[in-house]
């Protein structure tokens, strides 16, 4: 059966169905400044990489709006001579007119949609039979990765700033594999064909913001075209980045879990536009809102959201509480208040950036604690009132960085010895290009949220790294971004994880942490791996040799006994079933100063002992690679949860950090 994939973006359940009224609060276009990639800096990675000018990023998505200023080629040099791709003509897409030195490739794939019915593909009449997109996703992803500088853009007046991609001068090749259909179609056969074409065309980086439903397929399953295609790409030296999915915050919800893929989680940014709510007793609270509304003064009333609507709410601001996970009761509550012509609604619920848009009704979102404060005030007076002021801007360390609630979480449900996600980047309310045919976004820019937005952000960073380190393998690039990532925000404040309750983020939330582009350019040491290492990993996973042969395109005979899954040279150590002592090996390659001495720092997980040999690594002109052994033992007497720590090699300048995720299992697969 033809397998269907979907775009990983929070507004979409499957490709053709938009979740009604779902909205993420716009912040600004400042994602890359937040990550330290500032255009105004006279030096640094952006400058050293010439903004990624000779790097080619392949995007598999829903197409592109080629007229967008984000795809202008102004100031770009000639297309790299190694480029073998093409632009394909189609409906409202003229390759001579719409492709340029920025958008150097544009293909579209639809054969699979006609496979069973040659006369009816199920594609909507509004679709373009070309690489042009009808739905605002592909342009957003492409411009986030490599869009040109476009000043004075916003999401309907919020988040005003300059839109740009992570690698503003990198070249873009769009491979349209997703179509607006009744059941949502990004067909697996088309995806694999597009990935093969991207490899042959000569892309350097592939960014994919697509995924399939849980449960996740094994890496060697033929249905897992992402794993297959990425394996082929990595074997040719092409780095593949994928979104970690939007099924969070549940454990085991992360998608695209193959170890040769860079899997990206989504965080918020450092800017927020709250609305002050001043009660009649002069207590002021800050609310979240999806709209720009003028100041309003009104009476305040509490309405039980489980009860029938009341006409007493007319002209007043209504306080209600909701506990629904899917927001349906919140929508119903809003609709009831609209019917009685309430002036506005304050919804108290679980803290989240996710909000409901309601035309003609002011909608304010607060948490339960704030809601209780307002309710107590209402009960304390005969005529409660409230003043809703215009939004204010909060920026910088005042605004905590959070792993988004929707972002897919580890552990890895298929290969628990492989840490996923790998890395995190901003993916909440990212302003970037879209089709101007999107209602209310005729200016061609909009804010979107999802790991779909985070993955191309890291793809842009990888493109910059590829420009300054053209000889680095995909595994070296992956290692560089993981080992230099930060567990704090750019201001040194902790990163939190949004979910049923807020907690400090851990490796299952954000992998190595928040991507740090400048540090990734100079990591000191890297953990490298090649195709043969991945084949040994697949053998260690007890997969059959025929399946490994198919994915690797080479005859494979696994050793006997099979190797340990713990010995894949990942920039992380994850042990899901620790009972007896285990010993594993890691190998590091020096990419820093030739003569370097690294000392060991270990922060062991709680109740876990970590022993490392040797504890000093000495590199010189004759020693580029060194291995070390790690012995892990537990002091727990019963099955435990995962505990986290880190292992760091430091020369005083470079801190090469890998996360440790260890779970004791005295009785395997048994949770008390």
Query: How much helicity do the residues have?
Result: 10-25%
Which geometry do the CA atoms define?
globular
Number of β-strand runs: 40
The largest beta-sheet arranges its strands as: 6-9-5-12-14-15-27
Q: What CATH architecture label of the largest domain applies?
A: 3-Layer(aba) Sandwich
Q: What is the percentage of strand-forming residues?
A: 25-35%
Number of domains: 4
Q: Indicate the radius of gyration in whole angstroms.
A: 25 Å
Q: Given the helix and strand composition, which structural class is it?
A: alpha/beta
Largest sheet: 7 strands, parallel
Helix count, DSSP H or I runs of 4 or more residues? 14
Explained architecture:
Helix content is 19%, strand content 28%. Strand 30 and strand 31 form a beta hairpin. The longest helix has 18 residues, at 451-468.
Q: What order do the helices and strands come in, and which of them pair?
A:
Layout: E1 6-7, E2 12-14, E3 17-18, E4 22-24, H1 31-34, H2 45-48, E5 56-61, H3 95-98, E6 103-108, H4 138-146, E7 150-155, E8 158-163, E9 171-176, E10 178-179, E11 185-186, H5 188-201, E12 205-208, E13 210-211, H6 225-235, E14 239-243, E15 262-267, E16 271-272, E17 275-279, E18 284-287, E19 296-302, E20 317-321, H7 328-339, E21 344-349, E22 354-356, E23 362-367, H8 368-380, E24 385-388, E25 394-395, E26 402-403, E27 423-426, E28 430-433, E29 445-448, H9 451-468, H10 474-483, E30 496-497, E31 503-504, H11 507-510, H12 517-520, E32 525-526, H13 531-540, H14 545-552, E33 573-578, E34 582-590, E35 596-603, E36 608-613, E37 616-619, E38 625-634, E39 642-650, E40 655-664
